[in-house]
Amino acid sequence: MTKDFVSKAFAIDISQSKLTAAKGELVIKQEKPSVTVKEVKEFPYNNEGIEELIKFLEGYNEGILEATGVYFYYLHEKLTEKGFKVTVVNPAHLTEILGKKTDKLDAQRLLVAYMTGVIKGSYIPTGEIKELRELTRHRENLVNKITQVKNEIRKTLEIAGYKIEPFDKKGRQLLEKLAKGEELSKEEKEELKEKLGRNLNDAEKLTLKQLVELLKSLENMVKEVEDMIISKIPKPVIELSKIPGIGLITAATIYAEFGDISRFPNSKAARAYAGFAPRTKQSGNSESHSGMIRGNKRLRRGFYLAARSARWLEPFNEFYERLIARGKSVRQATCALAGKLACIVYHVLKDGVYKGIVKKRLRIPKGGEVNVKDFDVGDALDSLSP
User: Fold this and answer.
1) Are strands 369-370 and 362-363 parallel, antiparallel or unpaired?
2) Among residues 42, 154, 301, 303, which is most buried (max CB within 10 A)?
C-alpha cells in the first residue's frame, strides 16, 4: 500500500494596500495530485498586517507571490528574513498560464498553479547583488535624466540660433556664461561668430540657468552613486573589469544584472539572457535566424557599449575585423562581439577568474593600483560561438 504524499504551501496576491493570502495542501494519492485550499484571508499591507500574515502562515514554510509593480519587494524581504522560502512569479507569465486576474480568486488560483508545478518563479537577488543592482539601476536612471536635460539645453540654444557644442570643454564655459547672462569677450565673439545666435530673452535665460543648475546637480549625484558603487565592489566585479572594453561601473552593472550565475546552465543561456542570441525559426527541415532574442535590456546595453570599445582592443579586434571582412555591418559585428563578451563573462563569473589578456591598469576600490600579468587567451576565444 502506497503512502499518500502531502505538502503545504501558500500564495499571496499583492496590491498597494492589501494582501490576500491562501494556504493549502497538495495530496498525491495513487499518483493523482489534488490541491485543497484550506483558508483564504486578507491583510492590510503595512507592518502590522505583515505580522498578522506571518502568524497566519505558521506551518506553511514555502509559497509564491506575484511580482506586482514594486509592491512585492518589501513583503518578499520580510518573509525571507523570517525563513520562508518564497518564489516570485512574473505577472506576464502568470497571465499567460492562468488568464486575466480575478481579484477574489487570484490567490487561490496562484496557489493551485504553484503546487501543481505549472508556473515558474522569477529570480530575485539578495544581499550584495541586490544592493549593487539598486545602485547601478539608480545610476542609469540619473544618467538618462542627464541626457534629457542636455537635450533640453540644446533645444533652448537651437531656438535662439546657437550652433555650438555646449558640452565639450569650451562649450561648457560658454554655456555657463550664457546661463548667468554674462557678456562674451571679444575673443569669444570673434572665434565663435559663425556659431552664435541672437541675445537670449528673459524666459530663455531663466530656462537655461535652471537647466544648467539641474545638470550640475545630477552630475554630482551620479558621482556620489559611483563612489558608493566602487566602495562596494566585490571580487567578481574586479575580475570582470579586467576584460578589455569593460570598465568598473559596467562590470558592476553586468554582475548585478546577471545575479547568481549558476541559474544559467551554460554560456549560451547567459548570452540569450543578455539579449545576444539569434531568434531561430524552424519550418520542416529548414532553419532561419531573424533578429535577436529580447533579453535583459540593461545587460544588452552594457554589453553593446562594451563591445564598441573592445572591438579596437586586443584580443577582440581580430574577431571584429574578420566579421567586417566577411561583409557584416558594423552593428552586426558589434553585436556578435557583445555576444562573445557575454559568454566570456559567464565563464569568468563561473570560474571566479579572468584568464584572458589584460592591457590596462586597474584601480582597486581601496586605493591601490595593480599591474595585472598578461595571459594569452589563444584558441579559447575562438571556441566560443559568436
Assistant:
1) antiparallel
2) 303
- What residue numbers bound the domain in which 299 lies? 235-383
Q: Contact at 8 Å (CB) between 88 and 124? A: yes
pTM: 0.77
State the greatest distance between any 2 C-alpha atoms of the chain, in Å, as a whole number: 101
CATH number of the structural domain spanning residue 80? 3.30.420.40
- DSSP of 181-196, one letter per residue? TPPPPHHHHHHTTTT-
- Kindly report, residue by residue over 310-345, the tens digit of the pLDDT: 999 988 999 999 999 999 999 999 999 999 999 999
> Rounded to whole angstroms, how far apart are CA atoms 177 and 76?
51
* Residue 289 and residue 268 in one domain: yes
Read off the C-alpha cell for 265: 546552465
Task: Estimate the share of the chain in helix, then strand, then coil, as percent rounded to the nearest 5.
Answer: 50, 15, 35
DSSP letter, residue 198: P
